[in-house]
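Record type: ASSEMBLY
Status: queued
Input:
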Amino acid sequence: MVRRIVLLLLLFLVFICESTIVPWLIPDVLHTRLIPHLAYILILFVAVYYHRHTALVLGLVFGLLHDVVFYGDMIGAYSFSMGLSAYVLGLLFQSPRAPYPLMMTVVLIGSLLLDNMLYGLYLVFGLTREPYSWALGHYMFPNLLLHFIFALLVFVPVRRQLEKVAKLRKRNAEDE
Amino acid sequence: MLKLFKLLGNKKLFILLVGLILFIALMGFTLTNRTSLSWPEKFVRDTVGFVQGVFYKPASYMAGLFEDIGNLNNLYEENQELKLTAAQYLLQQANYNKLVQANKRYKEDLKFTQQQLAQNQFDLRIANVTSVDTDADTGTIVIDLGQNDGVRKDMPVISTEGMVGIISETSPFHSTVKLLTTLDPLDSNSKAIAATVVGKENESFGMIESYDKATGMLTMTQIKENDPLKKGDEIVSSGSGGLFPSGMIIGKVVSRQVGDFGLTNTATIQPAADFKDWKEVFVVYTKETQE
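Status: finished
Output:
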């Protein structure tokens, strides 16, 4: 139980860092081209190694947090896309034994899925007028690379922690 | 038909559809021009804002330190230049004071109303940036001044270089700044800025309406054909329209071309602010206008 709370707090910490410390680490040339969604990548790990429902709730909550804190135009875009894409990917790929390459594929698909859903929503609500090809080259692909590198870095520790939590849950379920 | 009912009987699909409708309703509602936020929103914004502030400040100091080390070489030249500008300012100050006095006297003679007098008065207050959202389409920054400090919606925000955006939402201790990079004439919430050229304030006029993300340039429209505006001119807000005070630096003209319908011209403007490496910004406190 304690471990779960600590992990949740760490997720919140990553959410805070992605909008405070990470922008300073991005080189000036790539400034509007890298839009870090690091907390979302961690939620994808939860979807694959833990459970898709947890990932859905986490996606909705952290998306909503992002929406409310950076409320410029509308609330709900991030919440909707993060929740739904994490759930769908969990539905398709959830397996506690997912190997390294599979998880990386999920991260790649997830990163593209999130950016595409956001682009689609902004297009529907008239917040963007840039052509899709431009968005693809300007920030979706650089984002993909950033998220891939981040997932590579955190893969081992995050997987180990999530497996521990999952094992604990299984044991609790058996006890009851 | 029976199949369709079976499909709708699927609980997951049903929840998904309801969720979709709820979210679209939420987005549609929040997209409209809201006067103030509800208390849960304010609470979340301020709590997260405080935590972000704790992280952002040290990070910006560290980044600033490296930048300073990099700039050490240019320090001497920069100092010389600054001394020169300071001397020029001093010279102009005397002249400026005289003009201000004269202007005030004329306004009194012409019986300006209180509101007209207050229109272009403003105070600046410094604000620390607490976090940045780099999203290309809805980019915002969060600053640590809020309702309790008297910040209101639609106040302009400037940096030392030039105008960066307007306040979009406020909570008691924090506000969100919608950047100029999200300017869009089709968006009903985005407000065009009435602008003019420094030194040709009486002859030149146009509206800063949109920002091109691909080129990083602002577009100024509705420029009359006989307007003296030309390449290299410095663009500032004109103060007409009442929303923004006059004299806020927006950018430099890069090119001028004939507009969409051939009746007016448009100009491409390089924004003065660079929209990155945020440290401090200034909120322009305009006098409250009666509506």
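Annotation: The two ends of chain B are 56 Å apart (CA to CA).
Annotation: Chain B has a mean pLDDT of 84.
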